[in-house]
Every structure is written in structure tokens, then in C-alpha cells.
């Protein structure tokens, strides 16, 4: 019997309700006091197409998926075909056998099968096929011991909006599921059991929620965006909340409008942001350059998905790093922050607004589908730790008429900023090269000085940037560098390797640009093996590291580009391999 | 504050426009209109794109934003949302506004923010040396259309009206008195006002010259059937064969974007960002 450790997958057709049921179960597990992580794998279509939802619950904090799933709830044969190989021996399958059967090799004998005609029960006993998801909830409750009180309370809460009848129907569906297991599978244990513990003061939240919430708390009061997967959640969240806080959200006509609106609002003194994904980011490139030359503070959230072009809209990838670093003609200073957890999605977003204001430049928050659309349990955010630093913003009454120079040369490159409406601050914010007063000029000396002023910010700001975090055994011979959504699987791999007496250290980069050269150089130095873990084909991060370290044999890429996040074993296996072939692995 | 004159809206920046350019007339009328309306330079936010028309932001003493080609309107819309106390004016050319910026034009107009958009129409691409623009006549011979422009010219004002514009007017840069009146009315109009100004390019457009316009324009207000409150009549005025109508072609009152988005009366740019901690904390209840 495996206690309080379960990775469960719901699989069916998009629109079947797997996602809703998955969310519901994640909530139940959380309220049972377990640590929860969820991952959505859904197709880019509204109805139909295989979709699945993975929920991991355990005693210790999870930052990613496990290597294999313990249980599969398959609403159709396709779900079994697609995922039976991902099942852990000893696991169990709940299969809706209303109209299909599973046989042959697909019917693995090392897992327990619960064939239950969910749709049939739904239709015949409850009169509505739609509730088969809820029946499956009752089945699971009976099989793994989900807390009945919590299940019923959560189902009631979720369906309350739809009225008492719907609540009642769903409660009866749960009971029907439980009853079926009692009647037909009384002596067939699932092998898993969950025991409720005190929930404690915890949250369960999606990465995109944490980013949006962080933006609000940081004082963002303007957002313009264009719907795009997987960033749309942020636009939706802000649309709901910003007006309540005196702010405004615009659904722009395209990404060019979304980013230029963001620039307009930021120019006028409002903390402003937009959120997009690869294809939208490509369209925003032009205005990012403008933000750089106008020295306007804007925050751009990029929720990366697979590319190129439209790629796979609902799948994860880390292939836009180069684009964020290098996009645009000409050269501008920019900052790229990459949260590795949902907590950091919050903290780094608040940091992004301060950095943008303080240094008057575009700041990107780079995240990926695997992080931004995943949920996890976490401690409530520390709101007292959030500071709002507007940088050098000139207040009304501080200027004497006729003396103001918007782009004044200063030691750190930051010029005090007057926003429209401030007396005496009139100036031209010119996208063409300009002098310190904002007048367009092609003067050679001025041009060189302006470039030095703007680009110099990147050096001047280094001490204020979020530092990389060192995980694992600090002086281990084997090292890993990674960022973003891979932080979770890498941390788990490091922990599990430590349990196998293979010490590993992991440098989680949180600022990707300006590239943290010093941290990386120090970290890589002396390691016999440095694995650079990233979700792309060309090794974009690895190339940045090579640029810092020069030719180095220790570096090797560990890359995955099938649109899915790493499982810990995919990081563990190659490292184990090195240890197994007798290469020295030692702690110094 | 003391009443200002047009000169108070002038910058010392030397102009990069050609001598005789129609854009001088637009700039001059704009400055006069702002002074007559009693605006203060720091209360005006002026946004332009690029091209000859885009340069105008450098010559107007106010808060000015010289952005990228065709995107003045999204910027101006957001400036207004960020600080509704500002007088927000955007300017662009026929290429800037009706080619690269055509999408933004239609959408800004349908949103109806309380901003003024001035399109300086010279019917050619001046700064890139005279190619056909969206308003160039069919057959217009230029470097990229040596056999004559194959495309039909766009009717910007009719397009704006179709998109739901609440103020549509046309002026001529060589008729300054009328232009000042039109721009004043446009700024005073509550909603998105479009002012198209015929602004001849003396260097590249040898057809649509000052003399040509004088022959081809008429004051709409002088026509018996001119009724600026009727949309169908306005369409008719803008699309019928014959002379080019000048003046306020159409005007209606409709809720602005600021009203429809329930924007607070105090400009967002002036909000205190520190006071909401309790309300922030309350939002987390949803995630427990």
C-alpha cells in the first residue's frame, strides 16, 4: 500500500471535462493537506482531440511531474492507447467501458483494472452523460480514500453557481461512483491510500495567476493584450481585477497595438504591462526597440510555447530565449527574468516592475507553458516584502520651466523622468536618435554618448538583478544549469541522485539577461560535468554559457524539444550513466 | 496660468520639412487652436508616427511621443486612458494612418477614446521620395509604379465613418482660418475626432498641388444638403463624385472609451499604488 503519494492522470477528449475534474481533484487533495502539482496537456482545439490532466499529490512539495503515473482515468480507448506505457507497474486504471473495450497488449497485467461503464451509469441512473466525470470522482474517492466530506464540499462549491439541482445531481453522481466500486470491486484494492492532514495556511495557484497577481500587487494598473495561448489567462485575470483597483485592461486589435498601448500608458506614468507568447512576441519586436530608445519602463510577460511560427500552441518549450535577448534591429538594454516556481512567478513579476521603473527599460518575465499553466500548492505570498520603487519619477511642482532634459546624461544612465501633465516637463520622446533634451539629431558624438548611456545601464544595474540560486551539494563534481519550468524536475533529480549517493549541484538562473556571467563562471569552474538542461533544439542557454566559459569539455546539453516538460528520470538517467561508467564523481 | 499664444506651443527645433510643405499649415493651425482653447503645453500629449508627418511632434512644444510607423493611435489611446485629464492629439500621414496603421485606425475609431487624430494627407510617400500612397489616385506614376498606380485610393474619412467615427472633418492646409476652427472643434469634441488635412507635397506630388486643390475643393457647410448629424448624408457627402468637401462632415455624441471602461475620474497615472494591501490579501482567499 502506497500512502499519500499518487500521480493521477485524467485522459479523454477535449471538452469532456477532464480539465474541470482535474482542477476539482487538485483542490480536494490540497484541502486534504497534501502537496499538489498539476500539469495540463491539452490540444489546440475546443472540442475533441486527446487531452489529459496530471495531478501529483504527495507529502513533500512537488515542482513537476513524476517519472510515471500511478493511476489513469481513461474516458476512452484513445487515452489508454496514448498513456498506458507511462504507467507505473502496480498502478491502476479506471476505464470507461461503456462503448469500448481494452484488450491485447494494451491490457497490461501489471496494473489493476477497474472497468466501469461511467457514461452508461451517468445516462441511465442520473439521466445526463455529462456527469460521468463526477462519477469517476466517486470511483476514485472509493479507491484511494479521498476525503468524502471535502469532495462533497468542493463539488458543491464548484456547481453552486449553476443551482441546487446541478449540485444535487453531482452529489448523486459521486455516490453512484462510490457505490459501483463497493458492489463490483470490493475486494480489489488499488494499492494506494490518501490520508487527510491539516491543510494549513496554503494556496493552490497556477503560474499565470501568480504573475497576474504579482503585477497587480506591484501596482500595475494598465494592461493591453491580445489573446494567445498560453498567456491569455493573465489577460483574463487582469480584466476581472484591474478595474476593481482603478486600472484598465484593453483587448487590443493585435500585438502591435497591445505593446504600443503599453508603451503609451507607461510613458504617461502608469505601471503597464502586456503578456504574450512566441508568435505575439515576434510581432511586438518593433515596439520593444522603441521602448528601449525612449527609455520607457514596460513589463512584457512571455509565456513561451513551442515554435517556430504557430508551433504547438498548447505545448511547452524554451526556444524563445534568443529571441528575447536579440530581437529587434539596433541595440537596446533589456532585462529577462525567469521564474522557476509559482512563488517566483509572483516575486519576479513584482521585481520586474521595479527594475523597469528604476532603470527605464523593457523587462521581460519569461515563463513557459509547463510552468505558467501548472498549479501547485504554496505558502501565501509575503505582501509586506513587496516594495514599490518608481525610480526617478519627477513629481508635479519639482521642475522650473525651460530647464528639463528628459534624456540627461547621468552616471548610471538613468535620467529623471517627467510624465505628461507635470509642469515644465514637456519634451519629445523621439524614437529616432536624439540628444539629452529629446531633439532628434544625427550628431556623431551625441550618438556614441547616447548608446553608452543606454547600454551602460546593463552594467550599472547588475547588483540589483535577481541572483541565481544554488541547489544541491555546493561542491559536487557534477553540475546542472537550467531555468524556468525545468527548475522543478532538476531539483527533484538532484534530490533523488543525492539519495543514490551521487552528489549534484544545480544553478537555477533567474536573470537570463544581462547574462549572469560571474555566477555562471564561478559555478561551472571546476565541475567535471556540467549538464545544461533546456527545452529547445539548439541549446540556446548552453551557447550563452560557452560564450562565458570559452572552450570547455565539461559542458554538455541535455535537451528536450517534443513539447513536453522533463520527467526527473530524463535528467537522472544520463547522470547515473556517467557515475556508472566509473568516471570520478566526488565531493571536494 | 496666463493665456498662451500659438508661439508658446512652438519649439526652437529647426524644421526638416521642405520649404512650402503643406505640413507647416497643419502645425501652425494646431498651435493656434491649442492657444485659442487655452490649453497649457504640459497638459497636451501629442503622438506621431514616422515619415514627414511624424516629424510634427518635434515642432510642437508639449509632451510629445515620436513612435513607430503607423502606431500613433494605440499609443494615444493608452495615453488618454492613463491620464484622462490630458488633451491627447495624434497625427500621421496618409501612409502612416491608412497603410501600415489602417488596422489601428479602424479600431481606435470604434473604441472612441476622447482623442483627436489628424491625418496629413499629401497623397504620396514623401520621405521615401514619392511612391504611391493609399490615397494616391489610380494611375499615379511614381518610382514603384512606373506604369501608374494600379490601386484604388482609400477614402479614409468614409472608412472612419464606417468604423463608427463620432467626428469626421476635412481641412486644407492653405486655408488656415477654417483649419483652426476644425481642429478646435475636433479637440473640443468628446470622442475620437478624425481630421484629414489636405497637405500638398511640393516636392513629389506634381498633380495634387495647391492650385489643384483650390479647383477641386468645396466648403461642405455651404451646401444645402449638408447635415453633419446624419450619418447617411455624411457618407453621401464623402463618397459622391465631384468636389472634395471641406469642413465638419459628421459629428455625434457617443459614450467614450473612458466612459465605457468605467475609468476612474482621477487619472490612473495619479493613483497611489501603496494603499490596497488588505484588498490584495483578500484576493488570495480564492486560492485557499
From TrEMBL, chain A:
Domain of life: Bacteria
The keyword rRNA processing appears for this protein: no
Domain Pyruvate flavodoxin/ferredoxin oxidoreductase pyrimidine binding: 214-452
Gene Ontology MF annotations: oxidoreductase activity, acting on the aldehyde or oxo group of donors
Ranges of residues in domain Pyruvate/ketoisovalerate oxidoreductase catalytic: 14-177
NCBIfam families reported for this sequence: OAFO_sf
Official protein name in the record: Pyruvate ferredoxin oxidoreductase subunit alpha
Gene: porA
TrEMBL record, chain B:
Domain spans labelled Thiamine pyrophosphate enzyme TPP-binding: 52-197
SUPFAM superfamilies reported for this sequence: Thiamin diphosphate-binding fold (THDP-binding)
Occurrences of domain Pyruvate ferredoxin oxidoreductase beta subunit C-terminal (ranges): 201-261
CC cofactor: Mg(2+); thiamine diphosphate; [4Fe-4S] cluster
Molecular function as annotated in GO: iron-sulfur cluster binding; metal ion binding; oxidoreductase activity, acting on the aldehyde or oxo group of donors, iron-sulfur protein as acceptor; thiamine pyrophosphate binding
Alphabetical keyword list: Iron, Iron-sulfur, Magnesium, Metal-binding, Oxidoreductase, Thiamine pyrophosphate
GO biological process: cellular respiration
Signal peptide positions (record): none
Pfam family, one: PFO_beta_C
Protein's name in the database: 2-oxoacid:ferredoxin oxidoreductase subunit beta
Organism annotation: Vulcanimicrobium alpinum
Amino acid at each position: 500500500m502506497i500512502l499519500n503519494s499518487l500521480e493521477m492522470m485524467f485522459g479523454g477528449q477535449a471538452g469532456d471535462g477532464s480539465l474541470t475534474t482535474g482542477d476539482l481533484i487538485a483542490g480536494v487533495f490540497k484541502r486534504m493537506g497534501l502537496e499538489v502539482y498539476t500539469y495540463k496537456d491539452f490540444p489546440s482545439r475546443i472540442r475533441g482531440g486527446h487531452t489529459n490532466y496530471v495531478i501529483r499529490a504527495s507529502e513533500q512539495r512537488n515542482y513537476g511531474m513524476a517519472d510515471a503515473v500511478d493511476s489513469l482515468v481513461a474516458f476512452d480507448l484513445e487515452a489508454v492507447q496514448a498513456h498506458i506505457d507511462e504507467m507505473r507497474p502496480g498502478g491502476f486504471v479506471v476505464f470507461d467501458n461503456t462503448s469500448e473495450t481494452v484488450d491485447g497488449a494494451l491490457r497490461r497485467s501489471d496494473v489493476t483494472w477497474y472497468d466501469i461503464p461511467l457514461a452508461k451509469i451517468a445516462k441511465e441512473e442520473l439521466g445526463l452523460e455529462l456527469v460521468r466525470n463526477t462519477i469517476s470522482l466517486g470511483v476514485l474517492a472509493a479507491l484511494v480514500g479521498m476525503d468524502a466530506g471535502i469532495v462533497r464540499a468542493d463539488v458543491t462549491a464548484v456547481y453552486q453557481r449553476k443551482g441546487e439541482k446541478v449540485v444535487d445531481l453531482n452529489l448523486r453522481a459521486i455516490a453512484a461512483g462510490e457505490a459501483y466500486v463497493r458492489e463490483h470491486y470490493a475486494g480489489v484494492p488499488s494499492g494506494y491510500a490518501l490520508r487527510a492532514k491539516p491543510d494549513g495556511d496554503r494556496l493552490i495557484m497556477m503560474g499565470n495567476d501568480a504573475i497576474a497577481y504579482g503585477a497587480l500587487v506591484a501596482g500595475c494598473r494598465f494592461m493591453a493584450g491580445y489573446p494567445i495561448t498560453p498567456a491569455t489567462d493573465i489577460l483574463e485575470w487582469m480584466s476581472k481585477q484591474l478595474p476593481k483597483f482603478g486600472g484598465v485592461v484593453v483587448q487590443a486589435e493585435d500585438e502591435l497595438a497591445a505593446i504600443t498601448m503599453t508603451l503609451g500608458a507607461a510613458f504617461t506614468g502608469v505601471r503597464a504591462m502586456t503578456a504574450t507568447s512566441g508568435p505575439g512576441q515576434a510581432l511586438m519586436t518593433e515596439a520593444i526597440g522603441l521602448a528601449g530608445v525612449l527609455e520607457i519602463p514596460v513589463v512584457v510577460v512571455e509565456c513561451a510555447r513551442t515554435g517556430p511560427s504557430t508551433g504547438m500552441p498548447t505545448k511547452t518549450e524554451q526556444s524563445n530565449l534568443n529571441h528575447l535577448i536579440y530581437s529587434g534591429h539596433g541595440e537596446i538594454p533589456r532585462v529577462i527574468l525567469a521564474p522557476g516556481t509559482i512563488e517566483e512567478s509572483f516575486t519576479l513579476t513584482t521585481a520586474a516592475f521595479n527594475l523597469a521603473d528604476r532603470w527605464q527599460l523593457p523587462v521581460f518575465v519569461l515563463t513557459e507553458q509547463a510552468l505558467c499553466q501548472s498549479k501547485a500548492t504554496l505558502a501565501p505570498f509575503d505582501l509586506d516584502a513587496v516594495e514599490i520603487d518608481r525610480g526617478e519619477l519627477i513629481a508635479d511642482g519639482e521642475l522650473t520651466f525651460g530647464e528639463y532634459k528628459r534624456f540627461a546624461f547621468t552616471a548610471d544612465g538613468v535620467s529623471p523622468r517627467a510624465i505628461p501633465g507635470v509642469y515644465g516637463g514637456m519634451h519629445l520622446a523621439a524614437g529616432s536618435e536624439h540628444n539629452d533634451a529629446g531633439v532628434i539629431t544625427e550628431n556623431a558624438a551625441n550618438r556614441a554618448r547616447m548608446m553608452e548611456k543606454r547600454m551602460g545601464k546593463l552594467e550599472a544595474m547588475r547588483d540589483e538583478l535577481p541572483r541565481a540560486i544554488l541547489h544541491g551539494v555546493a561542491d559536487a563534481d557534477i553540475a546542472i544549469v537550467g531555468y524556468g519550468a525545468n527548475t522543478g524536475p532538476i531539483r527533484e533529480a538532484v534530490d533523488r541522485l543525492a539519495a543514490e549517493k551521487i552528489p549534484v549541484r544545480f544553478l537555477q538562473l533567474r536573470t537570463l539577461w544581462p547574462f549572469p556571467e560571474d555566477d555562471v563562471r564561478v559555478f561551472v569552474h571546476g565541475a567535471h560535468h556540467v549538464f545544461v538542461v533546456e527545452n529547445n533544439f539548439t541549446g540556446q542557454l548552453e551557447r550563452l554559457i560557452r560564450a562565458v566559459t570559452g572552450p570547455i569539455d565539461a559542458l554538455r546539453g541535455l535537451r528536450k524539444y517534443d513539447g513536453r516538460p522533463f520527467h526527473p528520470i530524463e535528467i537522472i538517467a544520463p547522470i547515473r550513466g556517467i557515475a556508472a561508467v566509473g568516471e570520478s564523481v566526488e565531493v571536494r | 496660468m496666463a493665456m498662451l499664444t500659438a508661439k508658446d506651443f512652438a519649439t526652437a527645433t529647426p524644421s526638416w520639412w521642405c520649404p512650402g510643405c503643406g505640413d507647416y499649415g497643419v502645425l501652425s493651425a494646431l498651435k493656434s487652436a491649442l492657444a485659442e482653447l487655452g490649453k497649457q503645453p504640459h497638459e497636451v500629449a501629442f503622438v506621431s508616427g514616422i515619415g514627414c508627418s511624424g516629424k510634427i511632434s518635434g515642432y510642437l512644444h508639449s509632451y510629445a511621443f515620436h513612435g513607430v510607423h503607423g502606431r500613433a493611435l494605440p499609443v494615444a489611446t493608452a495615453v488618454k486612458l492613463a491620464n484622462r485629464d490630458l488633451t491627447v492629439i495624434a497625427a500621421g500621414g496618409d501612409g502612416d494612418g491608412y497603410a501600415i496603421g489602417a488596422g489601428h485606425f479602424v479600431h481606435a475609431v470604434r473604441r472612441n477614446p476622447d482623442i483627436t487624430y489628424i491625418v496629413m494627407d499629401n497623397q504620396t510617400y514623401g520621405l521615401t521620395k514619392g511612391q504611391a500612397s493609399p490615397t494616391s489616385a489610380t494611375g499615379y506614376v511614381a518610382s514603384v509604379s512606373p506604369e501608374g498606380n494600379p490601386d484604388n485610393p482609400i477614402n479614409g474619412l468614409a472608412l472612419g465613418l464606417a468604423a463608427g467615427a463620432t467626428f469626421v472633418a476635412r481641412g486644407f492646409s492653405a486655408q488656415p482660418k477654417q483649419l483652426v476652427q476644425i481642429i478646435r472643434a475636433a479637440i473640443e469634441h468628446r470622442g475620437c475626432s478624425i481630421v484629414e488635412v489636405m497637405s500638398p507635397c511640393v516636392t513629389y506630388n506634381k498633380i495634387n498641388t495647391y492650385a489643384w486643390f483650390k479647383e477641386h475643393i468645396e466648403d461642405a457647410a455651404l451646401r444645402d444638403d449638408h447635415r453633419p448629424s446624419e450619418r447617411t448624408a455624411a457618407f453621401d457627402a464623402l463618397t459622391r463624385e465631384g468636389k472634395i468637401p471641406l469642413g465638419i462632415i459628421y459629428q455625434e455624441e457617443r459614450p467614450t472609451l473612458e466612459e465605457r471602461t468605467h475609468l476612474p475620474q482621477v487619472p490612473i497615472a495619479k493613483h497611489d499604488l501603496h494603499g490596497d494591501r488588505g484588498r490584495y490579501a483578500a484576493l488570495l482567499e480564492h486560492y485557499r
